Amino acid sequence: MANSPTARVLVTPAAEATIDLLRDEHGPLMFHQSGGCCDGSSPMCFAKGEFRVGTNDVWLGQIHGCDFFMSAAQFEYWKHTQLTVDVVKGRGASFSLEIPLGVRFLIRSRLFTQDEEQNMAPVYDGEEYLTRPAAA
What we know:
Elements (H helix, E strand, L loop, with lengths): L8 E3 L1 H14 L2 E5 L10 E4 L9 E7 L2 E6 H7 L2 E9 L13 E9 L2 H4 L6 E2 H4 L7
Parallel strand pairs: 1-6, 2-5
Antiparallel strand pairs: 2-3, 4-5, 4-8, 6-7
């Protein structure tokens, strides 16, 4: 039996609980990390479809039922790391949906091992994402 592909993005239980609160209020959600300065480098949560993705964005997978995208330029810096979305108290200065709750999402990361890099989950650009295989 083949091993499951190495996930590129994970989520903590605390972040899952926040996602549940936001989903109850806003419906289906998505995440995007732009790689801009300051809070632009934090993962931002939007109502699904509210942030338009394209060929300059990379789909890394799903966290707690939410698609997670990153700008392609930022992905070049992070492609060797596994990202974990977490949440902490404090206000960010972004348009992310969690801000009114007095919390903010952030990324924790670690380098992939050589073994993990041999079996990576696929990534798709924002347009390929729409036509990716159903199993992805």
